[in-house]
User: Fold these one by one.
Assistant:
Number 1:
Amino acid sequence: MIRNQRRVQALLAVAALGAAGMFLGGKGWLGIDFGPVGAAVLYVALWAFVIYLAKYAGEVFPEEWSPAEKQAWVALVFVALIGFHVLNLLAALPDLGPEADRLRNSATRPFWTNLGLLIFGWIGVSSMLRKQDAGVGLDERDLRVAHAASRYADGALMLLVICLVVTLVALPEYSRTWLRPSIAANVLIALLVARALVENICTVLRYRRDRG
Amino acid sequence: MNEFSVRNRIREFRQQRAEMTQADLARACDVTRQTIIALEAEKYSPSLELAFKLARALERNLEDVFQYQEKK
């Protein structure tokens, strides 16, 4: 069991490295374009993770984790990856100029494909786990943890919105030229992803603390 | 001001009932086995409904299973 857990941790570390390469790659780093290599590493590691979970679902997570805690960890991984792609898109859009306002442009095309792949992978892993943990899915303790995490996430979202408003108001006129409608829309989506990320982090931390 | 906490004797009563595992008790109360683990470790205080379900599954009175005690 521990060997399988270590392998999954290694796969996630490789995926994180790939994501870092993908993020650095767009602008090149030390003259080397890591973008395509990073993306390939990220997705190969991610699909290996999904296949591994399908094969060894019962051995990857510790036995003392409840079904809801396992789902929260899976959600944390996928929301973090979605958040990373949204950030990647946000970093690419200002360079596109007026093209950024088109729904389909050179930055959004790979984004939608990757988003689709991630959502497909997330649904696949979640349903595998649900099948494995047939029986009681959520009980009152899980709902209490979810409620507490949701309150923290709402607080974080409120704070982020206030920070965004203050930043927009404080921006000097000349630096607002890049702030196109599509970028503003993606910033709002990024805030929602950040809220989901905070919610999942709070959930896993709460379960961890309760076990402590 | 004195601090109070909810203590319980779930593990003791479960072990007195021959062959009753955490999974059996969890099934009887419609919760996950991990919630029974948290309850036995006194890391979680149940709702009133779950407390009644536990007492019924263990065939004890509610006050035998749960005590509201001053923290030591």
Number 2:
Amino acid sequence: MNPVFYILAVLTLAGGLAAILLRSLVHSVLAVTAAFAGLALVFLQLDAQFAGFAQILIYIGAVAILIVFAVLLTRSSELPKSGVFSNTWIVGLVIAAGVFAVLGWAVLESMSAVPQQAAVPAVTVHDIGNALMGRYVLPLEIVALLLTAATIGAVIVAMHEKEGPK
Amino acid sequence: MTGFATPLANYLLLAALLFAIGLAGALTRRNAIMVLIGIELMLNAANLNLIAFWRYGPHPEALTGMMFAIFSIAVAAAEAAVGLGLVIAIYRHTNTTDLDKMNRMKG
């Protein structure tokens, strides 16, 4: 296992941890953007170039910006007086630790069953485009319809009500 | 994280840890936007699993895991747009994004 993976893993996990621990929401969005970037680099390291660049374009370019807009529109950047963690945070922490314990146990127990080592797959963006236009054309169309519906739905849901802004 | 024999297990453990972090964020924070950030982290962890299994699976040329990850990214983007639109709509209605204060179903 090369050291690049460990550097990227530490970057991703530090970004994720900082995102959920930082009090200011703007800082959280910055940290989660670092986590998205680290994950995009992990995808690149896994020889999934297309997924890596799609991750950069969609998550860093669109989702992070969208979250920043939502933070600013809802004035969530001001720190609440009652604290940033929920009243039942300990339950959430226990559930998350339990889920991680189960997942980690499953991975470590099935170590002999998972594939050991594989050659670098010779898959180019050309092949992905051919697959998207050939075998996966129906899911592609459905995703296109879903994205259109979601965009229109998001605009309608967030639109001003008729009495105007409060 | 100590070194394990198989690279795939390392990626799977990274994904599991990221999923747990996202779940902890979604369950412990008060702000609705932070819950959405936690959900995004969990979706990303699932994508990492899909890509890792595609990379180390027996038939990477079939592109199954890669396609699954790409469609999952697209659906996650739609989910983020609708989720944040809902948060903004609720904020306009109740003037708060604190989930502990959103405790009635009547508008």
